[in-house]
Amino acid sequence: MNLPAWIARRYFFSRKKRSFISWLSILSMLGVGVGTMALVVVLSVFNGMDELNRQIFKTFEADITISPKQGKRFLAPPALLTRLQQVSGVHLLTSVAQDNALGRYANGTTVVKLKGVDDNYLQRQQLDSALLEGKLLLRRNGVNYAIVAEGVRNDLSISPVDILTPLEILYPQSGQSFSVLNPDAFNRELLTVAGVFFIESRYDNFVLAPLAVARSLFSYKPDEVTSLEIQLQPGAKEQVVKQALQAVLGDKLLVQTRDDLNVDLYRAIYIEKLFVALTLSFIILVASINIFFSLSMLVIEKKSDIQILFALGATKSMVRRIFLTEGAIIALTGAFTGLVLGVFICLAQGQYGFIRMGTVSSIIDAYPVRLDVRDIALTSILVVLMTVLTSWFPAQRAANSQQ
């Protein structure tokens, strides 16, 4: 039988009456439990938000994007496209010409972000789950179509079933003095709206159109593009393909993964998660300090018991382990309860979504959560370290109380 553990359990569970010290111990246990539960839940919510953003970006952005380091367009001749297509791991290569333009439909006008893409863009099947109305179509029987975002549809009151009213895209001509009264100051293209998609508010001003239409509107040369978007083959490693593409392109062009394009957002989420974790850790630390005070008062209360143990032959190490075990019982009981409750809340939220976002325009109804074993492990290690630190000094004081 482990005598220090047995005595510690007797001190905590088998008191004949509840004293102030025992109630302080229970309060400490509850504080550690609530702090641990909150830390698990909050970290899981940040993990869920991170995963949600990755899913959103994956719906519209390519796995790898090639763009110029300087300026906004570059030449992509067929020979270069062929070399890039032959890189191991590349599945689809899409040429893109993108810029801001003016959209006009019936009596409405708005600024749009026109994205001209190759015919193989729809083979990526990214917008299949985001289509709200109409169909995904860019060109058929010599007719040029457009796929507009929900925000553009609302601003211009567009109806995809109305094939008689075209969407007019206007772009300032280079070399012309800008004037809304000068009809020759703009290039114009007419498109039939085929479908409407919605992903997230940051993409609400996009209009997808055939690449040839965008090049004509922007007065680009036949091989000029603003970027090249690459969809990888299943199982291909992004970093390996990125390095291979960079070796083909040299130093004038920039090769970026989807995470590289959104690194600022991911960094902001990580920093916010870190500061929230530190704040909740201080709450757990405050609860652990209560363990320090409860153990210190318990040492004073049990001073006569300690003297009896020394008289019976107990060593300093044994007495120290009694109070370290007492602190561990208080903290670990609370931590284990908090971990179980935190995991249960996260699983219930993921299954039933009972905590709602509270905004009508949100793309999801409930807060996203994702449990990460590393977060649970780090939380457990944090509680253990705080328990040892706050329990050590009262236990050492008890061990040194031998007369």
UniProtKB/TrEMBL annotation:
<dbReference type="InterPro" id="IPR003838">
    <property type="entry name" value="ABC3_permease_C"/>
</dbReference>
<dbReference type="Pfam" id="PF12704">
    <property type="entry name" value="MacB_PCD"/>
</dbReference>
<feature type="transmembrane region" description="Helical">
    <location>
        <begin position="274"/>
        <end position="300"/>
    </location>
</feature>
<feature type="domain" description="MacB-like periplasmic core">
    <location>
        <begin position="25"/>
        <end position="247"/>
    </location>
</feature>
<comment type="similarity">
    <text>Belongs to the ABC-4 integral membrane protein family. LolC/E subfamily.</text>
</comment>
<protein>
    <submittedName>
        <fullName>ABC transporter permease</fullName>
    </submittedName>
</protein>
<feature type="domain" description="ABC3 transporter permease C-terminal">
    <location>
        <begin position="280"/>
        <end position="401"/>
    </location>
</feature>
<dbReference type="GO" id="GO:0098797">
    <property type="term" value="C:plasma membrane protein complex"/>
</dbReference>
<keyword id="KW-1003">Cell membrane</keyword>
<keyword id="KW-0812">Transmembrane</keyword>
<dbReference type="Pfam" id="PF02687">
    <property type="entry name" value="FtsX"/>
</dbReference>
<dbReference type="InterPro" id="IPR025857">
    <property type="entry name" value="MacB_PCD"/>
</dbReference>
<feature type="transmembrane region" description="Helical">
    <location>
        <begin position="376"/>
        <end position="395"/>
    </location>
</feature>
<dbReference type="GO" id="GO:0044874">
    <property type="term" value="P:lipoprotein localization to outer membrane"/>
</dbReference>
<feature type="transmembrane region" description="Helical">
    <location>
        <begin position="321"/>
        <end position="350"/>
    </location>
</feature>
<dbReference type="InterPro" id="IPR051447">
    <property type="entry name" value="Lipoprotein-release_system"/>
</dbReference>
<feature type="transmembrane region" description="Helical">
    <location>
        <begin position="20"/>
        <end position="46"/>
    </location>
</feature>
<keyword id="KW-1133">Transmembrane helix</keyword>
<keyword id="KW-0472">Membrane</keyword>
